[in-house]
Amino acid sequence: MIKNIIVNLLSKTSIVVNSGVTHVHLEHPSDMTHGDYSTNIALVLSKSAGVSPREIAENLKQEIEKDLPKEIERVEVAGAGFLNFFLSKDFLNHSINTILKEGKDFGKGESFQGKKVLVEYTDPNPFKVFHIGHLMQNAIGESLTRLAEFAGADVKRLCYQGDVGLHVAKTIWGMIQARVAFPQDGDSLTDKIKFMGNAYVVGNLAYTDDPKAKEEIKEINKKVYERSDPEINIYYDKGKKWSLEHFEEIYKKLGTKFDEYFFESEMAGPGKELVLEFLKKGIFKESDGAIIFPGEEHGLHTRVFINSEGLPTYEAKDLGLFFAKSNRYEYDLSVYTTASEQSDYFKVLFSAIGMIDKSFKEKAVHVPHGLLRFSDGKMSSRKGNIISGEDLIKDMEVKAMDKMGEREMDESLKREVSEIVAVSAIKYSILKQSPGKDIVFDPEKSLSFEGDSGPYLLYALVRTNSILRKAKEAGLTGEKFEEGNYKLQKMLYRFPEIVERAWLEKSPQLVADFLQEVAHEFSAFYANEKIVDTDDLKNSQSKVALTRAFREVLKTGLFLLGIKEVERM
């Protein structure tokens, strides 16, 4: 990448070498008249050198210009001592042809070549609603997996699901109360999921308000762990099967296919054994009949790993999950994505695991996400229930259908497009936010075709495809970019460094922001230039080539965000 060439150029100057500075920071000036790259290295060096930044910048410029690479047209000193680099026209022209040559592979890197990465995300719980938080985890996790793959990594998509616990017992208790209405095998999956959802509401209320029901639910919880009651097992097996089938329907819409599923029921036993084993080694301690990890001793907070009833908690199961992953896969990095409210929990968990396996802390990263709030302040449906991820997708599909209006399109195709548009609106709204920050979701703005939305990017792709069809009909193939001086050129070459940085910083937001910026610039290019112009074939061929290059970058960027393409809207 050209960025690396400039960094290496600066790093090899005698001024930088003698200073001992090991990191050179480059950025793209917001105003392109100030160059394609800018660095404040002279300001950094002046602090210890006792020389003005401007003087250091001038000296750096003179040293660099002795052997200026062909990719750089000139270097200028600006302001208090910034160094601005201007790329050559040959480089910018060549970069467009590189995009055309590499196509969907443009942007692929080698920063994680040969590395093995595990990404665990979504993690919905059978017997419970697939809620908005699961949508957020899925959008972020899926994008991170694609970014890792683009960086050269061998990635495994993993999903960890809570198929045991009080939520399961509450649902089963509610199912038993309503057994006369128990769905038949031939009933729709929608009806089965609705039945379970209602059963959970009944069981959850009973657990809170009815002491007798609470004890019954606690007994069911034990029997689920033990698999000791044939009747309970029937309810459990049916409910789990329905939930997993339902989740697969949602994953299909979201474009995710997991490599492996892990379940809490499988982690409970191994997790408990690990806690008991390392209790003897002093990592865990006994406290009031429970077994805890004394987080306060490590600057954290204390967590219970086995409760006073002898049952493993989430913490113990997560401990078992870590070693299950380690036994199943060799890996260099394990990524967890969950709500930011669990950040402190993961600090304790990682600390406990790190004391058992010293290598763990170097191989694990938690990527948090904030909460999704609606612009109208509402967080629940008309019935008072928290809006599920599935309901949000369906509501957005209806809005997308309405927005498409009376467009001439086959009804089945219209439904398919509305689904892709709806999911793009949700995913982009999630991914455009920086990691850990809360999201204010405005359904109307998220579906806008006019900017800062997923549908806007899809519309830019549809428009580009239309232009290229017209170009082809006019005999303009745009196979090679010959000449031109367009702002769009000065943006497209950046894509590989944006993608690399997005993976290294675990921030898909960088790709979302870049696509929005470059799509706006293409819109300006389209408005100001006659792209298909048979009266000026030479310039038109280059403009068509630039349009093709934009399309390749946009398609790849959408893929990295987990957004499917559409041909028409």
Topology summary:
Layout: H1 2-11, H2 14-19, E1 26-27, E2 37-39, H3 41-49, H4 53-65, E3 72-78, E4 82-87, H5 89-102, E5 116-120, H6 132-150, E6 154-161, H7 166-177, H8 189-209, H9 211-226, H10 230-254, E7 260-263, H11 264-279, E8 285-287, E9 290-293, E10 303-306, H12 314-328, E11 333-339, H13 343-356, E12 364-369, E13 372-374, H14 389-404, H15 411-431, E14 439-441, H16 443-446, H17 454-473, H18 489-492, H19 495-504, H20 509-528, H21 537-560
Parallel strand pairs: 5-6, 5-11, 6-7, 11-12, 13-14
Antiparallel strand pairs: 1-2, 2-4, 3-4, 8-9, 9-10
Features:
569 residues, flat, Isoleucyl-tRNA Synthetase, Domain 1, alpha/beta, five-stranded parallel sheet, four-stranded antiparallel sheet, 14 strands, Gyrase A, domain 2
Description:
This protein is of the alpha/beta class and 569 residues long. Among the domains are: 86 residues, Arginyl tRNA synthetase N-terminal domain (Gyrase A, domain 2, 2-Layer Sandwich); 93 residues, no CATH class; 130 residues, Orthogonal Bundle (Isoleucyl-tRNA Synthetase, Domain 1), CATH 1.10.730.10. 54% of the residues lie in helices and 11% in strands. It has 21 helices and 14 strands. The chain is flat, with a radius of gyration of 28 Å. The protein starts with a helix and ends in a 9-residue tail after the last helix.
